[in-house]
Amino acid sequence: MRIAAYNIEWFDALFDDRGQLLMDDNWSARRDVTRAQQIEALGLVFTAIDADAVMVIEAPDTNSRRSTIHALQAFAEAFSLRARRAVIGFPNQTQQEIALLYDPDVMTAEHSPQGLVDARHAPRFDGRFRIDLDIDATEDEIVYSKPPLELAVTLATGRALRMIGVHLKSKAPHGAINRDEVMRLSIANRRKQLAQAIWLRQRIAQHLAEGESLILLGDLNDGPGLDEYEHLFGRSSVEIVMGAEEPRLYDPHAETALRSKLTAPPSSARFYIKPEKRFLQALLDYIMISPDLRAHNPRWRIWHPFDDPECWGRAELRDALIAASDHFPVVLDIDI
């Protein structure tokens, strides 16, 4: 079975309100890429991956006029993808939903939120999480701008497993106008992101304690060593989500990054830093699995156009990966 996680930059901007693709030469929301170019690039990438299921991060919007499910299923039909059925969880207000696009001949997937909205421990992901963020003896309330997507998945073989699609809060200090504001917002955003990671880890621990097979996948917007404020808090969101003690989740790219000191860690995203006139590469996207799934011959691969030899060697695929998004697909092949 092949499962992928793919953050697609401004996927929503490629559809009209009826969920139909805008295949034209107008500029997409991506830098220097037309809508037709981005759509065609995405079609090529999805076709090349040929996954049984893709957790789409920054999926098209759901609101009173638009439907994530209609848009994704129209995209799948346009490119004759096997993964042609879509499911979402709690919609959000960011125009960046979390959705699973999957092959209904291989599996079924249903939104299956856990917990209670007002629970003190591991509340439901559309609820509020109470935690003291700044050690002032006062509880702060944390909410997800993009609630994780919790799925109950049943494979055609009858095997059951859990999937959680995630897109944690960005640490970027958006709106800061001077160095002091950058520092203040960066620290505040990191506190909120770490709180979201703690909340998520509480849910993960529940599934692992019950002996359930779990796959967590998506964009954690974090990784070891990504910013200068990490030392203030001791751990990254990635480390919190994976867990400090057994049973832990496992992702080999995360483990490599945690050990990296003198060598470059893997990367799954590439951003242009305009003031510095250069590209920044970062490991932000992960597929983490529960201990029981490690016995099923899992193989991970980041479809990075410059780091993966096969992607680099196929010029059409390499160009498509660059045009499609500022993130690259992370793919897990596993014998289940």
Report on the structure:
- Helix 1 crosses helix 7 (315-324).
- The protein has seven helices and 15 strands.
- The chain has a six-stranded mixed sheet with strand order 3-4-2-1-15-14, with helices on one face.
- The protein has a single domain (2-333), classed as 4-Layer Sandwich (Deoxyribonuclease I, Chain A), CATH 3.60.10.
- It is 26% helix and 23% strand.
- By secondary structure, the protein is α+β, with helices and mostly antiparallel strands.
List the topology elements.
Layout: E1 2-7, H1 35-49, E2 53-59, H2 68-78, E3 85-88, E4 97-102, E5 107-111, E6 129-131, E7 140-142, E8 149-155, E9 160-167, H3 179-209, E10 214-219, H4 237-242, H5 252-259, E11 269-273, E12 278-282, E13 285-289, E14 299-302, H6 309-313, H7 315-324, E15 330-333
Parallel strand pairs: 1-2, 9-10
Antiparallel strand pairs: 1-15, 2-4, 3-4, 5-8, 6-7, 8-9, 10-13, 11-12, 14-15
Helix pairs in contact: 1-7
